[in-house]
Write a structure and sequence with these properties.
The chain is an alpha/beta fold. The protein has helices spanning 19-35, 45-55, 62-73, 91-105, 114-120, 140-150, 160-171, 190-207, 235-263, 319-326; strands at residues 3-7, 36-41, 78-81, 109-112, 130-132, 176-180, 218-223, 268-272, 284-286, 291-294, 312-314. Strand 7, helix 9 and strand 8 (268-272) form a beta-alpha-beta unit. The strands form 2 sheets. Strands 8-7-6-9-10-11 form a 6-stranded mixed sheet, with helices on both faces. It has a 5-stranded parallel sheet with strand order 3-2-1-4-5, sandwiched between helices. The protein folds into 2 domains: 3-147, Rossmann fold (3-Layer(aba) Sandwich), CATH 3.40.50; 152-326, 3-Layer(aba) Sandwich (Rossmann fold). It is elongated and about 75 Å long.
């Protein structure tokens, strides 16, 4: 799903720019906008230098300047990690910083300019995963990014490792997960939902960059009550539905939420929302950097352990819809 990159400021050295180089740079930045993240240092050394590089681009680079500056400002496109270098750093130190980030975070690529590519291409520690921006279009990084962007098809036709990779790439650099599935609140098939959610949380625990740190990480499951209570119903009907909804809620807490909280180190919270207009339908996994639409919800497995027919689709345009779902009134359960 998501590709991760460290962007060395040397990739935007003005002297390297011609029309072909500019096209390569635009392709890289547009690709990150679609399904990628940039890894930056917490002291903002890389960001500040990249802003300077953007400002110094030639007039023909106006579109490129906008792409780069907007990308650096977008929180969902940045992964911020601690750095260990002093504040008064030189251009060589900046290369050291990018190599440090590459070593610590193991991204898909370190994107560099031509000069720094020559410095690193024969370095046994750093040569793998180095992508000169001048050759970006033909890189393995772009080929892989495009493959994930196009979608991999139904998960029951994929190898388990490929489905694992979809989840890992979506959640690896996130400090929280949000799961949306209205059907969970019915209280039916809780063991099936638990197995699917355990699968996702286990991958996050094992591969998450931040999730293994003490005190970091949270999970929230958003759902709806089994029965919506309408204003025009009789008091008796309302009371009956409320009682059934409360019973279902307790069943979900007992059979799903409490076991998950016992098995995993982060707080796992259940939020039940009233949805009188029926907007809460599609199912999603949301992370800090990705929104994955899960067509048939978190009941992912057949009784034999194989995946059911389901689709994991990257859909970053759904953030406002998910915000609307989170802002629905809390149900009386």
């Amino acid at each position: 799903m998501l590709m991760s990159a460290v962007l060395d400021p040397s990739a935007f050295d003005a002297e390297d720019f011609n029309d072909l180089y500019r096209i390569q740079a635009e392709d890289f930045l547009q690709g990150i906008w679609r399904n990628g993240v940039l890894i930056v240092d917490s002291e903002r050394k890389l960001q500040e230098e990249l802003f300077k590089k953007a400002a110094s681009l030639p007039i023909k680079g106006n579109r490129l300047r906008t792409l780069l500056t907007d990308l650096l400002k977008e929180k969902s496109k940045r992964v911020t990690v601690p750095s260990v270098l002093p504040s008064n750093i030189s251009s060589r130190d900046l290369l050291d910083l990018t190599c440090h980030l590459k070593r610590d975070t193991e991204p898909d690529g370190l994107i560099v300019g031509n000069e720094n590519f020559e410095k690193l291409r024969f370095d046994p520690e750093h040569r793998h995963g180095i992508v000169p921006l001048s050759e970006y279009r033909d890189s393995n990084f772009e080929e892989e990014r495009q493959r994930y962007c196009d979608g991999l098809g139904p998960i029951d036709t994929l190898a388990r490792s490929e489905v694992d990779e979809i989840v890992i790439r979506s959640a690896r650099f996130s400090k929280w997960l949000k799961l949306y599935d209205a059907y969970i609140g019915t209280g039916e098939n809780t063991s099936h939902f638990r197995k699917g959610i355990e699968y996702i949380l286990s991958l996050w625990r094992e591969h998450g960059f931040f999730a293994s740190q003490q005190g970091v990480g949270s999970v929230e499951i958003f759902t709806c009550p089994a029965e919506q209570i309408r204003d025009d119903e009789t008091d008796s009907a309302k009371e009956s539905k409320l009682e059934r909804n409360q019973e279902n809620y307790q069943k979900v807490v007992r059979e799903l939420v409490e076991p998950l909280n016992e098995d995993f180190p982060w707080p796992i919270r259940l939020s039940v929302k009233d949805d009188p207009d029926g907007i809460f339908h599609a199912r999603y996994l949301e992370t800090q950097h990705a929104i994955i639409r899960i067509d048939h919800g978190f009941d992912l497995f057949k009784p034999n352990g194989e995946f059911r027919r389901n689709f994991f689709t990257l859909n970053m345009m759904e953030s406002s819809h998910l915000r609307e779902c989170r802002n629905l009134p809390d149900a009386s359960v």
